[in-house]
């Protein structure tokens, strides 16, 4: 084999292994101008899905949480470019774990601002990921033109820094890992969780967003306000074990 054919062969092989390795994201329409991005991470025998949001407004696009990694986050950016044809204005990270923040670099490469609370920024850096801009307050409304994004920090639950985001127009609550899908009977990764405070935080969320119609959890299927009470039930089981 000539040197050139060998190089081509190695290149083809690495492209092939990349194609096999890279997981494909899914984007599902939730409401008019609101989409859920779903990315995947292989953990043992299971391929764990993770949800984030894409919100289109007349001021541009807002993204809540990255995919698990940079490759899948690039796919989200590509999807927005192709389908929404508006610039991404801001990315909001709802806590510092890799299912929320693992793809920060992909946004930074495109000069898209990635933001979080101070605590999340600190914890993200600690976990070895690039820092979001620590500009979000614990309670704040972001004016997106024809929509509002309400940031709310309910206190330590799944993680000390978890926040939720409410879309005023569509009455959609993005709970992230603070809220569990009714598909699961497990609390998931609780290594950074505070079970007692978590329940108190859920009560705060419930009374703050009384009009909520759709609740999107960090993983698996979404539903209505019952996801909040379902998460409380799971916590009761764990606390009384
Ligand atoms: Zn988490």
What quaternary form is this?
Answer: single chain
* SSE run: HEEEEHEHHEHEEEEEHEH
Small molecules bound: zinc ion
What is the average per-residue confidence, as pLDDT, rounded to a whole number? 93
N-C termini distance: 66 Å
* CATH domain class name: Alpha Beta
Number of domains: 1
Q: Output the structural class.
A: alpha/beta
CATH fold assignment: Metallo-beta-lactamase, Chain A
What does this structure look like?
The chain has a single domain (23-239), classed as Metallo-beta-lactamase, Chain A. By secondary structure, the protein is of the alpha/beta class. Helix 6 packs antiparallel against helix 7 (226-239). The protein has helices spanning 3-21, 70-83, 98-101, 104-109, 118-126, 195-208, 226-239; strands at residues 26-31, 34-43, 46-57, 60-64, 88-92, 114-117, 133-136, 139-143, 148-152, 164-167, 172-176, 214-217. The protein binds zinc ion. Zinc ion (ZN) binds next to loops.
A few lines on this structure:
Monomer. Helices cover 33% and strands 29% of the residues.
Name some characteristics of this structure.
241 residues, alpha/beta, Metallo-beta-lactamase, Chain A, 7-stranded mixed sheet, 5-stranded mixed sheet, 7 helices, 12 strands, 33% helix, 29% strand, globular, binds zinc ion
Topology of helices and strands:
Elements: H1 3-21, E1 26-31, E2 34-43, E3 46-57, E4 60-64, H2 70-83, E5 88-92, H3 98-101, H4 104-109, E6 114-117, H5 118-126, E7 133-136, E8 139-143, E9 148-152, E10 164-167, E11 172-176, H6 195-208, E12 214-217, H7 226-239
Parallel strand pairs: 4-5, 5-6, 6-7, 11-12
Antiparallel strand pairs: 1-2, 2-3, 3-4, 8-9, 9-10, 10-11
Helix pairs in contact: 6-7
The structure holds zinc ion.
Zinc ion (ZN) binds next to loops.
